[in-house]
Write a structure and sequence with these properties.
disordered C terminus, Photosynthetic Reaction Center, Chain H, domain 2, 12% helix, 157 residues, two-stranded antiparallel sheet, single chain
């Protein structure tokens, strides 16, 4: 599964997210992007009173909606994220496992879907990075891990 380009995902906040069958998930609250690669990996969406985190691997624009590659029920049952503004490396790995998406550390200090790679990684399908646009207010990015290694990987832009 590939990730959307940063330019493509930049305008997704506020748009309706639907699952692979067309079932409504909810409006996109924000996009999370890996600081090492600039690739948008996660989005949060409002489902009633809940804010849920879902993968952007395989996500595509479908008219005025964003269609994700996972099922709505799997989004509802996903492991929770303690802080809706950031995702820890441990939470990220648990989310990828929950959604059945193979992940790798290649191309990033955190984890990425196995098919997503940084430019110049030979022999693997995936994305090529493009110059990263300035972060809009609704985009978050990954930050460096502090010495303890337990602090959040994601932080607001």
């Amino acid at each position: 599964m590939t990730l959307p380009t940063p330019e493509r995902a930049q305008g997704w906040a506020g748009r309706m997210i639907v699952d692979r069958t067309g079932a409504t998930v909810g409006p996109c609250v924000q996009i999370f992007r890996d600081d090492d690669t600039g690739l948008p990996e996660w989005a949060s969406a409002r489902m009633g009173d809940l804010v849920v985190v879902l993968p952007l691997a395989g996500a595509v624009e479908d008219g005025d909606q964003i269609r994700i590659a996972v099922r709505r029920d799997d989004v509802l049952l996903a492991p929770p994220v303690a802080d809706q503004r950031r995702i820890t490396e441990r939470e990220e790995a648990a989310l990828y496992r929950h959604f059945g998406i193979d992940f790798s550390r290649e191309g990033s200090a955190t984890v990425l879907p196995a098919a997503a790679t940084a430019q110049g990684k030979p022999g693997r399908p995936g994305l090529h990075l493009v110059p990263r646009p300035p972060d809009p207010p609704s985009v978050c990015r990954a930050g460096p891990n502090p010495p303890s290694g337990r602090a959040p990987v994601w932080r607001p832009a």
